[in-house]
Predict the structure.
Amino acid sequence: MNKLSLKTFTLLQTVTSVGLSALAWVVTGVRPIWNGSLPSDRQRIYFANHTSHGDFILLSACLSEKERAITHAVAAGEYWGKSRLRRFIAEDMLSSVLINRQWTKPEENPIEIMLSVLDQGHSLILFPEGTRNMTEEPLLPFRSGLYNLSMARPEVELIPCWIENMSRVLPKGQFLPVPLLCRVVFGAPVAVAPGEERRAFLERAHATLLALNPRPERDD
Amino acid sequence: MRHEISILIIGLLAVLTTASIVAAILSARAPKPLSSTLVNLTQRINAWWVMVVLITVAFFFGRYGMTILFALISFAALREFVTLTHTSRSDHWVLLGMFGIIIPFQYWLVWTAWYGLFVIFIPVYCFLLMPAITALHGDTERFLERIAAQQWAVMISVYCVSHVPALLTLNVPDFEGRNLLLIAFLIIVVQGSDVLQYIFGKLFGKHRFSPNVSPSKTWEGLIGGLVSASLLGALLSFVTPFSPLQAAAVAFIACSMGFLGGLVASAIKRDQGVKDWGHLIEGHGGMMDRTDSLVFAAPVFFHIVRYFWTV
């Protein structure tokens, strides 16, 4: 699995990505707010809050076609690898990278898989809460993947991205989206400071992402 | 009708071209970097070009074009309205119904000219059934606020907006087959009044009309805009079933309603802590920022024409 080799988009992936971006625009009128960083084709890890399956579609709809072709969402292998259909959707259509949190074999090590993507010059979309947030909390605590990736590849920019309103568009347990306007706020890059400890960094990254929410009082 | 439409289109092109030239001259003469007012002026004029072209294209598709165009405007306006208000997870099905059932059904009623149901579907049936569905979900937190916002959202963005294409269903004697011109008259007069109020306000505005609600509305802008828009209405009477005096009076009422619509929209935005409804139209804000006046003017204009001019 960590020998996974990435190419730029297949025809199916291009069609899917253009189609989903158009759909995202029709339903949510999604638009990016570049608040501390700018669109760029340099290698990045976009990390975002996660409340619905639509999150990564919204985020990638804010990227250029060129960036989208080299940007992969990291998704849970336990869910998306379960059946052939799901795996087809996740990998062949959405070009996601699947990782297993309960891994046993060394080649399933999530960090190694994500690093192998970065080493091919591609970018990642990461949801550091580790799962969809179904609680009343605006943002769950972060898992340590973000820290490990940044320590191993400090040259890759970590861009915090706040996805607004998606929990209202597609609330827990629903599959039909309500059309509401959404914005994605891209903040200034976060980096591990010299000597900064894992927990301190994760808490700082967490606070940075939370601070991007343009209308915190509305998160209900 | 061809003749009247040609005159309207040539007139609009002349006004827009003049506006673009004036903005270009002002921008060339102004010190750099340009003030935000000038940048915004240019953006607004450019957006007007797009809007005029879109509406003109829809115009040529007649009843189809108008019904679909205003259904889409309702969709965009409703999306902005609901985004701005408080919703709860348990409102999901009601919200879906607003977009998926109420908009298509209301415009189907416009299309089939079923007047009896068109006027009561939202104010009677949706008014009663939407809160009933919300109550059945059992979530009573901020209940009145939620159902009130839902009512307002569909009344403003669907019910009121749908009165524009509904003008096509009116049966005005000696005006058969020319109802599209009523829509053109309403849009040009009301949107023209917005622009004229903006211009008079920027040039002569001193006394604020209602500083608590909208800092940009002035008495000078209001009076100058309403008087000139009424004159514009009289000037356009040749495309309507009205005499010049009647056209001026109808335009005055429609534009006064339009002004009040802008005022109410400003009050809602201020209450919700935002400056614009959205970002759909560069320089103007969202769809509701551009249609707030039309929303208030359309039903009143519709009923004036229906009461005094139809059989």
In short: The beta strands of chain B are 208-210, 214-218.
